[in-house]
Recover the amino acids of this structure.
């Protein structure tokens, strides 16, 4: 395996001719090797500088900023039509494959349900090791089903959350379990499907369980020992700010799950993480108030776990419009001055621009059909239209329960300065039902009946970052369940439920290449180098497909 | 996403493949109160009647006002079907309903079976003769015999209500089954092919023309795809059958239950 710090040092030294420099090189090499042995193959600084080594894909989103953007530019609009399958890895478990591979120094790490991790030789797709958690097979997965979206790497460890709600650290070279920590009780519907986020000495992990009436939280664990460092509750307890937004004892089962991987600003040392629906989902009668901090974006101090600010997209949500999307961190000019922004296309059909230092709302605009709000007020709070709540008879509202987008990733290209998002344009009849909490059972209070078939549509949309205005759109046959990847080569890769994996022109949306994988696609694409040549990968059906130029 | 895919997804979402709770049906329905049945009726009317008809008389889905339900002779089976759906069919699982709500719906469905079943006015034997005489078999398979342009009818009586069958005969465009959308593909060089849509994705279209030939198109090669929602390749029989003939044909189709 490559040792990046050593490689950099060697490159710097090759041109030196003096013995003095030669000795210095050897000294540096020794120090670097010591650092590698102490810090492992992926020290924190490599993750911070992930954009500087585009041949790898080091985190869930490719970088801490949640960009899902590849700086690689070998595959272009001119040659993308020549893409061919390089290899296919067949998953070992039948189920919904949502993994986003992580690529480190010629090894690819993939996950699959119930909770299995496999290290693959990047050149051939041949397994190097595999690990499976046996207990996960019988786990409660109320409201989502068994799946796993990926792993995190830090130093010489691979971290994965399990369906039975444990966090496990595996040796990156062998898959041996270094430690495992119980995050919460799976019997109450707590589960982990998201890839963890590894930062400086800590592993951040969120939980699913929004349909089981859990009390949501985000945890940080010591990366070396698995010991809990902090827990940030998404539902405030008695005496905590925001507790007054819950009537009676409803906060105890208020949900607010954290089931999609967040982003991180290493300079501000702030973690950005979305929260899900309040419980019960569709019957808000028993939880009067705004129900903080559900359907919100949280900025959490990485060191202390304290919430620095929050922004709630959908106060008192009754449509299950989780804010569990990847927040995208962008530094950009905003009305004449440089600002640190966080942008997101929310499940509620609005696109938001916030100041990520303060949480200040800067701008918001619909990016898909919606029939529930007149718009947003000056502070970004939705102006909810009357008569849009679920009813016993059913109430037709856009977007559907699954939202205008969902957990699958958006992408930001610093080359085009566009935000790309896969859009589900679909309405639903929302029903209100009874809601009685019983531990480990559904706590939903209603349901939906979606408008399906030709009454629904899917889109890939390119939005201007600052304004959210539509730059272009590409029509899909049906609402997608998969994310997008923009590349510096000028392409946007995406997928469709019918099995198509395709490339669009990043500037115009024009389709340039497509491939029928034969399987339902519910995953995010990634890009990396194999032997110096750019490849892209997507999980489709029961296979992981890797494409490259001939 | 079509209804079947929604079903598949909903089954995946429920996690039923790996975690199926045991269902205790003993006395669950007999213990229901009048208020429970009223609640069950409310849920049924809002969430089930679209397919099964108000009062369970059937429609897109089978009639449920029967003393014996083919797939749910036991109450526990009825519970499971409501909760998890029927794999490979258009029946989705209603996992967001609480167990109590599912029993309320199940109780209401059972109460429908205690009412008098619909008596059809026609003569099924005469309907069978009409089916042959009018040439219906040229397009429909029944028990292994017949043409393939239209849907197979061997179990149609178990899947569709008599009212739906009557409408399908008199106004076929109002009751187009899934997989029979009429489309016209127009190529960039002006060629037109009309048929039923067999499949479609974001980049391609497959259809079957009136001669049952398959055609496959890349959408980039087409200038337009016309979709004729509300149209059917089947002729309407409103003016081709007398009222009593229509009754007879409906009676025979309703008797086709795959048994």
């Amino acid at each position: 395996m490559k040792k990046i710090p050593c490689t950099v040092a060697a490159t710097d030294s090759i041109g030196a001719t003096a013995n003095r420099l030669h000795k210095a090189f050897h000294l540096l090499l020794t120090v670097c090797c010591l650092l590698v042995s102490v810090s492992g193959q992926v020290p924190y600084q490599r993750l911070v500088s992930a954009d500087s080594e585009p041949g790898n894909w080091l985190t869930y989103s490719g970088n801490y900023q949640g960009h899902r953007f590849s700086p690689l530019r070998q595959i272009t609009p001119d040659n993308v039509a020549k893409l061919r399958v390089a290899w296919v890895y067949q998953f070992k478990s039948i189920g919904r494959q949502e993994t986003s591979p992580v690529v480190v120094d010629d090894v690819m790490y993939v996950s699959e349900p119930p909770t299995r991790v496999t290290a693959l030789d990047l050149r051939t797709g041949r397994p190097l090791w595999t690990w499976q958690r046996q207990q996960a097979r019988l786990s409660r997965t109320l409201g989502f089903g068994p799946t796993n979206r990926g792993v995190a790497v830090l130093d010489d460890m691979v971290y994965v959350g399990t369906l039975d709600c444990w966090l496990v650290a595996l040796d990156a070279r062998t898959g041996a379990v270094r430690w495992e920590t119980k995050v919460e009780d799976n019997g109450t519907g707590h589960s982990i499907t998201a890839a963890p986020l590894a930062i400086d000495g800590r592993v951040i992990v969120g939980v699913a369980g929004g349909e089981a009436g859990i009390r949501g939280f985000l945890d940080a664990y010591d990366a070396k020992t698995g010991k809990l460092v902090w827990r940030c509750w998404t539902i405030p307890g008695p005496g905590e700010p925001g507790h007054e937004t819950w009537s009676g004892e409803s906060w105890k089962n208020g949900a607010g799950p954290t089931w999609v991987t967040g982003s991180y600003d290493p300079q501000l040392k702030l973690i950005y993480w979305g929260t899900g629906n309040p419980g019960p989902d569709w019957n808000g009668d028993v939880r009067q108030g705004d129900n903080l901090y559900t359907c919100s974006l949280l900025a959490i101090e990485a060191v202390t776990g304290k919430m620095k600010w929050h922004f709630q997209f959908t106060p008192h949500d009754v449509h299950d419009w989780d804010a569990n999307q990847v927040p995208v961190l962008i530094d950009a000019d905003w009305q004449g001055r440089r600002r640190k922004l966080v942008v997101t296309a929310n499940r509620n059909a609005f696109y938001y621009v916030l100041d990520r230092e303060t949480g200040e709302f800067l701008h918001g605009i619909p990016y898909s059909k919606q029939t529930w709000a007149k718009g947003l007020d000056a502070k970004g709070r939705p102006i909810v239209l009357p008569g849009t709540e679920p009813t016993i008879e059913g109430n037709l509202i856009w977007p559907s329960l699954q939202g205008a987008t969902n957990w699958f990733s958006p992408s930001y290209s610093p080359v085009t300065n566009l935000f790309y998002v896969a859009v589900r344009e679909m309405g639903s009849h929302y029903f209100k039902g009874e809601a009685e909490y019983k531990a480990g059972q559904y706590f939903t209070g209603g349901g939906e009946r979606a408008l399906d078939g030709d009454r629904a549509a899917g889109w890939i949309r390119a939005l201007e970052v600052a304004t959210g205005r539509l730059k272009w759109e590409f029509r899909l046959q049906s609402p997608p369940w998969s994310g997008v990847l923009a590349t510096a080569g000028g392409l946007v890769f995406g997928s469709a439920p019918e099995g198509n994996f395709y490339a669009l022109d990043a500037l115009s949306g024009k389709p340039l290449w497509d491939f029928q994988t034969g399987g339902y696609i519910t995953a995010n694409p990634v890009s990396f180098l194999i032997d110096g040549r750019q490849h892209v990968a997507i999980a489709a059906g029961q296979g992981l497909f890797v494409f490259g130029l001939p | 996403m079509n209804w079947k895919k929604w079903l598949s997804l909903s089954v995946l979402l429920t996690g039923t493949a790996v975690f199926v709770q045991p269902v205790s049906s003993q006395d669950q329905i007999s213990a229901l109160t009048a208020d429970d049945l009223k609640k069950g009726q409310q849920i049924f009317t809002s969430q089930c009647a679209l397919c099964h008809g108000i009062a369970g008389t059937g429609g897109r889905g089978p009639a449920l006002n029967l003393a014996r339900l083919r797939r749910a002779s036991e109450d526990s089976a009825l519970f499971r079907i409501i909760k998890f759906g029927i794999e490979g069919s258009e029946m989705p699982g209603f996992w967001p309903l609480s167990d109590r709500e599912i029993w309320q719906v199940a109780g209401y469905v059972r109460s429908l079976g205690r009412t008098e079943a619909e008596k059809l006015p026609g003569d099924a034997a005469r309907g069978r003769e009409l089916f042959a005489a009018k040439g219906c078999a040229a397009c429909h398979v029944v028990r292994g015999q017949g043409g393939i342009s239209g849907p197979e009818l061997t179990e149609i009586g178990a899947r569709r209500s008599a009212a739906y069958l009557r409408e399908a005969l008199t106004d076929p465009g109002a009751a187009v089954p899934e997989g029979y959308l009429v489309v016209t593909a127009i190529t960039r060089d002006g060629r037109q092919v009309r048929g039923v849509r067999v499949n479609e994705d974001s980049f391609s279209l497959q259809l079957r023309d009136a001669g049952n030939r398959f055609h496959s198109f890349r959408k980039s090669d087409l200038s337009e795809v016309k979709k004729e929602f509300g149209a059917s390749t089947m002729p309407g029989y409103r003016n081709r059958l007398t009222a009593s003939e229509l009754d007879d044909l409906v009676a025979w189709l309703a008797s086709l239950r795959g048994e």
User: Anything to note?
Assistant: The two ends of chain B are 32 Å apart (CA to CA). The CA atoms of residues 84 and 102 of chain B lie 11 Å apart. Strands of chain B lie at 182-187, 192-200, 204-209, 214-218, 222-228. Chain B touches chain A at residues 1-3, 5-6, 12-15, 17-19, 39, 42-43, 45-47, 50, 94-101, 178, 181, 200-204, 220, 227, 229 (CB under 8 Å).
